[in-house]
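wait is this the right file?? whatever heres the structure
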């Protein structure tokens, strides 16, 4: 008998063979002439730190001025989230800031890029405190990287071209999304629990407490 280069002369004796291949462990033990496979003990997989993979759909209020609606869910119990390494980007293209609403997480790299063949600048300020986050020129093809340290909604303007404007919504959690024009939205990776929902519908903002139960798949944020 030969198994992976190992020779066994006495097949009447109990044989214990451990083969490690492709991270699989198989134990063979003597059981009255029969060999029984013993599976390795189960190992709990590491839970996703941002939720359990559930997708929640819903409807949010639409804005009175036609602006896009942003929905944020903040867990009411302490949770830790990893800061994304992948940057998000706002471009200056066609005399516009694109996208008109950009979502970012606190500490995530945010790129402001000038994709046009003319000079622009980017002035960003917090709409609540009016504090300027930065004000820089963006040369043709240039990109400026910024890390927001404080959650909030930030207005983006170009002082050279006042008609240009956009928003950056910076959240402390990854549970944020921009709704469709109809108000429909979806949020991924939501675990059951209590959340504070913040709805930015243009200039109007509101908050409400919501409960995500074990069987919740739909949220109606239009109800009072």
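ok assuming it is, sequence goes like this
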């Amino acid at each position: 008998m030969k198994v992976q280069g190992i020779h066994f002369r006495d097949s009447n004796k109990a044989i214990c063979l451990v083969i490690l291949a492709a991270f699989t462990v198989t134990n063979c033990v003597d059981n009255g002439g029969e060999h029984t496979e013993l599976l390795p003990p189960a190992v709990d997989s590491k839970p996703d730190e941002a939720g359990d993979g559930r997708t929640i759909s819903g409807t949010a209020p639409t804005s009175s001025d036609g602006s896009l609606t942003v929905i944020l869910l903040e867990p009411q119990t302490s949770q830790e989230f990893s800061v994304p390494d992948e940057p998000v980007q706002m471009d200056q293209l066609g005399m516009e800031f694109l996208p008109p609403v950009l979502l970012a997480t606190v500490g995530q790299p945010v790129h402001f890029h000038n994709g046009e063949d003319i000079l622009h600048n980017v002035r960003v300020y917090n709409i609540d405190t009016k504090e300027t986050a930065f004000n820089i020129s963006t040369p043709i093809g240039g990109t400026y990287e910024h890390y927001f340290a404080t959650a909030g909604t930030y207005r983006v303007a170009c002082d050279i071209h006042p008609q240009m404007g956009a928003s950056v919504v910076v959240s402390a959690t990854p549970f944020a999304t921009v709704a469709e024009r109809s108000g429909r939205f979806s949020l991924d990776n939501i675990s059951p629990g209590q959340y504070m929902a913040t709805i930015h519908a243009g200039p109007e903002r509101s908050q409400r407490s919501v409960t995500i139960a074990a069987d919740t798949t739909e949220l109606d944020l239009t109800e009072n």
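The two ends are 76 Å apart (CA to CA). so i think its the right one actually
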